[in-house]
C-alpha cells in the first residue's frame, strides 16, 4: 500500500483514448457516463419520454425545438425557425454553454466544461440517431487483459497527478488501511451541524440568490419554491401541519437552517451535485429564507458569521421517539384469541373504490405518498 | 399461476383486472380438462411432449442464469405517481410470488435518491474520521482482510405502507408491503473498523455517507454502531447488486432502511447528531397535534399475508388452501403469528416454518380447508419483546394520518366466494 492502486477504469479509458484518433470522434461508452449529467432532465433510447427536457432520440438532424409534444422556450423555437439544426458543431456549442448560445433557453444546465466530455456524449447520442448510427465509430471494446501499466504511459489520462505522499499505515490492531490525509478529509467532510460546525467561510445575499435560483433551481422547484409539477415544494405551507394535507417545507417544517445549506451543497442542483460555490450556497440559502418569510429584506446577507443566529420557526416541534409508550404497546396484555369483536365484522374501506394500483392505465394519486 | 396461452409472461403488461379474470378462467379450464382426462387420459401425459423428445439448451447458454421464462411476471414494479422522477424513486418487491424468508437479489426493492451510482471497486474508498485517534482510509481490498460475519437481516423502508395511512389504497401486497427484502449479508462488523481508528470517549454519534450523487447521510448512535452494524460487500453470497450499493453498504439491523447507507464511503465520529435532510425533512413522523417524532429508528413488529392476496387470488375453489405470509420485528425474533379468517373475531396461531432469526423475515403458514365462503384475512405478529402488532385504527388513534412512516398496522384482505382478493379495512 505504498501508492494509490491504479484503477482498472482509468487504464481502460487510457487505452481507448490512445486508439482514438482525435477528441472529435468521441467515445460512446464514455459518453454514456457523461450522459448521467443529463439524465435528470433527458431520456434517450427505447420508449424515451419527455422529462424536464425533451427526449433525445434522433437529435442529430433535428431542427432545434421541434420534438413533438414538448413545450420549448420561445428562444429555442425561434432558433429552430431561424434554421438551427442539431449536428456535431451546433450541439457542441450548445452543450458547452447553453445560455451563451441560446439566450433564454430554459435548459438549466451550466454546460460541459471539457471538450472530451462533449465529444463523448455526442458519440453516445449518435447511437440513438437514425442514419447517424452507422457512421458513428463503434465503441472501443475494452481489452480485458489491458495491462494496468498502460495508464502510466498515456499522456491523455486526465487523472490528478498522484501527490508525492508519504503513506502512513494504520496503527490499529489489524494494521489495515492507511492514515487519511487532511486534504482528503477536507475534500469529503462537507457536513454541517445545527450548531454551525462545518460551515465554510463565505457569504451571499437574498438579491444574489434570486438569479442563481432562477437559473439553476426554478425549472424543478418553481420561481418561488412552489414546486413545478411533482418536484419538491420548498416554500410556504406555514400552519398546515395539523391539517389533512400538511405541506412540509423549509419554512413550515424543517427544524434547522444548517440542513438547507448542507443539503443544497451536497445534492443540488439535482443531477449536477457539488457544482455550486460556497458563496452561491449562502446566497441560495438566504433566498430560501426569504421565500419562506424568515427574512424579509432583499439585501439580507447570510454568512458564516451570522448563520447560527437564524432559527427556523418549527424547531421546537420535534420530539423524541416515544412510540413504545403508545397505548397499544404499553398495555402489554396477551392478545385476544376468541370473541374479540361483538358482532359480524363490517368492511369500512376498500381499495377498489380508489383504485390507484398501477396497472398501466391512467395512474393518478388521490393522496398519501412516500415523500 | 402459469397461463399457458402466454408463455412469455406478456401478461404483466395487462391490467390487473384482466389478470384476475384470466386467473378465474384458467381455473375453469383446469376443471374442464380434468373431465376430458377421465375419458381418454390427459394429453400432457398420454402424448409425448416436445421437451421430452428434443434436446434442450446446453450449459453456458446463460453464463449468469435467469429465472424460467414462465416466471417473467415476477418482477419489481413501481407506482409512478409516488415520486416526481424515476431517478429519485422506489419500486417494490413482488412478495406475493415469493416463499421462504430469503429475497432473490434481483427482486430486492430499490430506493435511491440520485440514481444508482456506478463505482469500480478499485476506485472505492471508505474513510473514517472525526473524533478518532487516527483517521483512516480503506480500500475494498483492505476491508476484505478483516474478519467477516454472515447474517440474515430484513431491510424495510420506513415508508413501507405509507400510502395506506388514510385508508386502503393499493391492491396488492407488493405495493402495500413490498418495500422490504431479506438477504444474507457478508461483511465486516463495523466495530472492528471503528476500533482500528480508535473512537474517542466523546464520540457518541456516527455519520454515514454514500458516494452517490445524493451523497446520502444519516446519523447513527455509537451504541448501535458498536453493537450489530455490518459493513457488507456481499448479499446472498454474491457481490452487492449495483442498486443495493455496490461495492459497499452499511447494515443497521432492525432499523429503518434509509439508514443502511449504500455506496458507503465515509464514517464521521461526532458528539452530536447532524440533523441531515434525511432525518429532519424526511424520516420524521408528523403527529396529529403538529409535533413530529425524530430518530424513530426501529422498525416495529409487523406481518402480512402474502398469499392469497389481491395479485394472487384463490383460483382452485374450495378445499385445502395454504395461507402464507411474512412476519418481522426490528426488536428481535417473532415469537408468534396469529391468523384470523373472520376479520378478527377469532384467531388461531399460525405455523412458523424455516429459521427464526433476529431482525430477519419469518415465514408463517396456516393450512385450512376453505368452504368457499367469504373471508376477511388478517395476520398479527408478536415479537420476543412481547410487542403485539397494532390495528390500523389503534395506530391512527395514537398518531393521526400524516405520519407517512412506520405504518405497521394489521392488514386485511377480503376474499370473496370466487376467490378474488381485495385490500379492505374493517370495523
Describe the structure in your own words.
The complex is a heterodimer of chains A (371) and B (427). Chain A is mainly alpha-helical. In chain A, strands 2-3 form a two-stranded antiparallel ribbon. In chain A, helix 2 crosses helix 6. The N terminus and C terminus of chain A are likely disordered. Chain B is built from 8 helices and 24 strands. Chain B is globular, with a radius of gyration of 24 Å. Chain B has 2 domains: 208 residues, Oxidoreductase, molybdopterin-binding domain (Sulfite Oxidase, Chain A, domain 2, Alpha-Beta Complex), CATH 3.90.420.10; 123 residues, Immunoglobulin-like, CATH 2.60.40.650. In chain B, the strands form 6 sheets. Chain B has a 5-stranded mixed beta sheet with strand order 5-4-13-8-9. In chain B, strands 6, 7, 10, 11 and 12 form a 5-stranded antiparallel beta sheet that branches. A 5-stranded antiparallel beta sheet of chain B has the order 19-18-22-23-24, with no helix packed on it. Chain B starts with 15 loop residues before the first helix and ends with a strand. The N terminus of chain B is likely disordered. Chain B has 427 residues and is α+β, with helices and mostly antiparallel strands. At the A-B interface, strand 1, helix 7, helix 10, strand 4 and helix 12 of A face strand 1, strand 4, strand 5, helix 4 and helix 6 of B. Strand 5 of chain A pairs antiparallel with strand 24 of chain B, so a sheet runs across the interface.
